[in-house]
Design goal:
Blueprint: H1 2-22, H2 27-37, E1 43-48, E2 54-59, E3 64-69, E4 74-79, E5 84-88, E6 94-99, E7 107-110, H3 114-128, H4 131-138
Antiparallel strand pairs: 1-2, 2-3, 3-4, 5-6, 6-7
Length: 153
């Protein structure tokens, strides 16, 4: 009986060590967690960092989010426009991000490729423009008529 208990303890220890090494890098689990946190948001695409501990989420309507692995769950954060600062790092596969509304999410993020890091940083830059600024940029000037040539002398 004692041998069986020792064998069970050894097996449980091995399983726990293996799961700690692998971490919680299941993208499917991350999608479920983000869906629970923000059920009204539609996910467009995901990009995980090279270590799998962070996943950046591109949402419809030029929104973005981030999920950070917290051992047995993902901490989900919806990034509000204009509330993140991105700084390049010497390694082109990464960048540093400061989330003004959620400082616990701040950090250096490294991806598998330079292309992936660039794409995520572009999402964040696109997300940086506030909704009000987008409306102003899209509103045509009333006195501008594209059919008439410039009348400046």
């Amino acid at each position: 009986m004692v041998g069986l208990i020792l064998l069970l303890i050894y097996y449980i220890g091995r399983v726990l060590r293996t799961s700690e090494k692998e971490g919680n890098h299941d993208v499917g689990f991350a999608i479920v967690e983000f869906g629970r946190a923000f059920p009204e948001e539609a996910i467009r695409s995901l990009h995980a960092t090279a270590d799998g501990n962070s996943i950046f989420v591109r949402l419809h309507d030029s929104k973005a989010g981030i999920m950070r692995n917290r051992r047995n769950h993902f901490a989900c954060h919806l990034i509000n426009p204009g509330r993140v600062r991105v700084t390049p790092l010497p390694d082109v596969k990464g960048f540093s991000a400061e989330f003004l509304d959620a400082p616990t999410q701040n950090g250096d993020f490294f991806f598998r490729s330079e292309k992936e890091a660039a794409e995520v940083s572009l999402w964040l830059l696109d997300n940086y423009v506030s909704v009000e600024d987008r409306i102003l940029d899209e509103t045509p000037a009333e006195d501008a008529d594209p059919t008439k040539p410039d009348q400046a002398n």
